[in-house]
Description:
The chain is α+β, with helices and mostly antiparallel strands. The chain contains eight helices and six strands.
Amino acid sequence: MNRPARAGYGAGMPPPRRSSYQLLRAAFDAQADLLVAALAAADPLAPSRCAGWRVRELDRHLGAIHSGLGALLEQPDPGPADASVAGWAEALPDLAPLIDADARTEGPGLAQALPGLRLALDAAPPDRVVAQRTGRHPLLDALLFRLVELVAHGRDLPVPLGPDRTALRLVVKALTALLAERAPGRHVELRVPPFSAVQCVEGPRHTRGTPPNVVEVDPVAFVELCTGRVSWSPATADGRVRTWGDRADLSPWLPLLR
Length: 258
């Protein structure tokens, strides 16, 4: 995202204050604890909603990305951030084979990975930078990526997990900002009440009143649309997505994360 004040932030995403990191950390801890309990209650051999993964592979994936962040925080500071939230999202398809291999390799699950990561987070300054496969990211971004994973994968369990409210709000705000960057413009207003509203998509710009095209989505459904768990047509058919206007169609830009 192309905001000059700090790498990693752009349209709709102001540079974080220290309190922003503290809020993110609290939401991360709450969502992680919910998911640890849900994973412990699930049959590890039961199928998940991730194609080809059982609960066991899902748990190993979460363990790998969280233990990986802890290991990155033990490395020397790599220098200034040079990667964005958008860059992370764009890199995910190319990383899919590596992600799948990690999930199929014997390793710690989420419950085993979290204690070491939490110790590393406690010791790290909020302005720390970590060098991931997707580039050098501010720690706030790197932790946000894990929060997105925790919220999205909570829906992949045999019994889908309802996310922590603050975690859901932060993820929705990040994803609406990413969509506004992918589809810049002011012809469509996307509303994800009560958490976020952005304008997007090129076209005639409205100047007063309600825009000509409005999309309203429930928060959990929006996360599922952005992560490919739900498709546009079924979500509009069952009312999770509600549209007004002849150009109120965001399906060309979804899912955001592949």
